[in-house]
Amino acid sequence: MRHILKCTSCGKYTLTEECSCGGKTLENKPPKYSPEDKFGEYRRQAKEEERKKQDLI
Question: Is residue 1's pLDDT more than 80?
Answer without folding.
Answer: no
